[in-house]
Design goal:
This protein has helices at 16-24, 26-34, 43-59, 68-81, 95-110, 163-182, 225-239, 244-257, 265-268, 284-302, 330-335, 343-353, 356-360; strands at 13-14, 119-128, 134-144, 150-156, 187-204, 214-221, 271-279, 317-319, 325-327. Mean pLDDT is 90; it is low at 1-10. It has 363 residues and is of the alpha+beta class. Helix 6 links the parallel strand 4 (150-156) and strand 5. The protein is globular, with a radius of gyration of 24 Å. The strands form two sheets. Strands 1, 2, 3, 4, 5, 6 and 7 form a seven-stranded mixed β-sheet that branches. The protein has a two-stranded antiparallel ribbon with strand order 8-9. Among the domains are: 41-113, no CATH class; 204-273, no CATH class.
């Protein structure tokens, strides 16, 4: 493997995405931040960027909601021309691409811009840690209240995070909060807006055996709205006196358009369909963990020599909770900008595909 000479020392300004890349794969970070190689983009970076761009334009009065779908469709055509593909399903099918397009098409067709007037889009922030490390970035959306306090939002076109994954990604929001607080602002909340999903709130029975109705909150992927919500709506239709034939017709319209607007008024009023907004934990413990993550990552990174041998790739296998060894190469093969140039993943794949039978079949 040929080493390249390290570029001149950068100033010590980082972004949370850079720190995440360092923790994800040191070799990826080496090529990006030491060799200065941008690498190739993946479908999600291209598609996410165009959606963010139009949403910013809507907030700033440059675009309207009607611009979302054409912009998305054009970007899909562009990445197709570039040969950039979505990840394949388990059997090589295009279900991931199909679901993403269905989700985001529904979002584009139903999106309504925030009603508040005091909004800021893509505003730069800077945060300096107690150890004098500096982070900067841009906040997707801020809602400024009359008292000067703010709510912070970050758009996500990815699948929802959960568990430890949500905690890890929440550092992005916590960093925004810390930066705005250093500027003197009071931050009420910070949240992700997951664009592929909606939140339904409605009165219903949580189980078949339940006697009383209660308010149910259900997060639903947009392409699955018909499947996930039809059972509840069907019960409501029948309870309100609709016969089975009429109920089936109404449900078919609901499954087609995936909106409560097509429901009869007395049923529609029982449901609200809202953007999927999930708040981050802004507790003192979460803030301290984030600060330590920033300082520890930067200290580790700046302590490395700049020689390629100091920057190993991520582990290509992992051990599951049941003790089974499984492959851990999804990021490398589907999302990493340096996949084509990475010798480690290609060596791993060659070794995996080489068996004794291959040699036996030579003669």
């Amino acid at each position: 493997m040929t080493e390249k000479k390290e570029k001149c020392k950068e100033n010590k300004v980082y972004s949370i995405s850079r720190l995440d890349a360092i923790n994800r794969c040191l070799y990826e970070a080496y090529r990006t931040y030491i060799l200065g190689e941008r690498g190739g983009g993946n479908c999600y970076t291209y598609m996410g960027s165009i959606i963010h761009e139009v949403l910013e334009g809507i907030t700033n009065g440059i675009n309207t909601e009607a611009d979302l779908l054409p912009a998305m469709q054009k970007e899909l055509e562009d990445i197709d021309m570039l040969g950039i593909e979505f990840p394949k399903g388990r059997n090589g099918e295009d279900i991931i691409r199909e679901h993403w397009i269905q989700d985001m098409t529904h979002f584009c067709n139903t999106y309504q811009a925030p009603k508040g007037k005091n909004l800021k889009a893509e505003e730069k922030f800077i945060y300096k840690t107690p150890a004098s490390n500096t982070l900067q970035g841009f906040i997707d959306l801020q809602h400024i209240h009359k008292d000067g306090s703010i709510d912070i939002y970050d758009y996500k076109t990815s699948s929802m995070y959960s568990g430890a994954d949500f905690k890890d990604h929440s550092r992005q929001l916590i960093t925004y909060v810390l930066g705005k607080e250093q500027e003197g602002y009071k931050v009420n909340s910070a949240a992700f807006i997951f664009l592929k999903y909606v939140e339904f709130r409605f009165m219903g029975k949580k189980t078949v055996k339940s006697k009383n109705e209660t308010e149910i909150t259900k997060i639903v992927e947009r392409c699955k709205i018909g499947k996930e919500m039809s059972p509840y709506i069907e019960v409501d239709l029948l309870n309100h006196g609709y016969d089975q034939i009429d109920a089936e017709f109404i449900l078919s319209e609901f499954k087609k358009y995936k909106t409560v607007d097509v429901l009869p008024e007395e049923i529609r009023d029982r449901y609200s369909m809202r953007p999927c907004v999930v708040k981050a934990d802004l507790s003192d413990e979460a803030r301290q963990e984030c600060i330590e993550y920033i300082d520890n990552t930067i200290a580790m990174w700046e302590g490395l020599s700049g020689k390629v041998s100091d920057y190993p790739p991520l582990e290509f296998t992992k051990i599951t909770k049941t003790g089974k060894i499984t492959e851990n190469t999804f990021f490398c093969t589907q999302l990493c900008p340096h996949y084509k140039e990475c010798p480690y993943i290609h060596d791993f794949q060659m070794q995996k595909n080489t068996t004794d039978d291959d040699f036996d079949d030579l003669f």
